[in-house]
Amino acid sequence: MATAQQQGQQIDLATLSAQQLSQVKKQLDDEVQHLSSSYQNLKNAQQKFRQCIKNVQDGVAESTKDKPILVPLTSSLYVPGKLADTEHVIVDVGTGFYVEKTTKDAETFYNAKVEELGKNIKDLETIVNGKANNLRMVEEVLRQKMIAEQQPGQAGASGK
């Protein structure tokens, strides 16, 4: 059963027992929860890149040159500093690597990241919706099986 699902083959839900349907439902619940969490993480990353664009546009201006600013070392640690160059910034390009870029190149870099994440978010949204639809179908078949299993028992009990 699991092998068929992992390979993307279709399974006739009506042929599965209630216990098997419950297992499929649990697996789909876990997948939807994991994918939804991943979706939210991508949205958060996209928002951080948008904030980076705003920071480059607003924070690196000629009016801020040589004025005291707080430089973030981590998400919660800032140190005092002064902006010496309004034409160049240091950009975190991932995995701890930093590159000096012009402010225009930095904006282009962050815009590309936002766009790429947008595509990934859209693809993931399609997958989440598909899994959620599968989950609803499994829940409906499981509900029908539970009702069908209870009805013969009730008929036999009332006949006694």
Automatic annotation (TrEMBL):
InterPro entries: PFD_alpha_archaea, Prefoldin, Prefoldin_subunit_alpha
Family indicated by similarity: Belongs to the prefoldin subunit alpha family.
Pfam family, one: Prefoldin
Coiled coil: 18-45
Keywords assigned by UniProt, alphabetized: Chaperone, Coiled coil
Single GO molecular function: unfolded protein binding
GO cellular component: cytoplasm; prefoldin complex
Designated name of the protein: Prefoldin
PANTHER family listed in its UniProt record: PREFOLDIN SUBUNIT 5
Transmembrane annotation, as ranges: none
Organism: Neohortaea acidophila
Domain of life: Eukaryota
GO terms (BP aspect): protein folding; RNA polymerase I assembly; RNA polymerase II core complex assembly; RNA polymerase III assembly
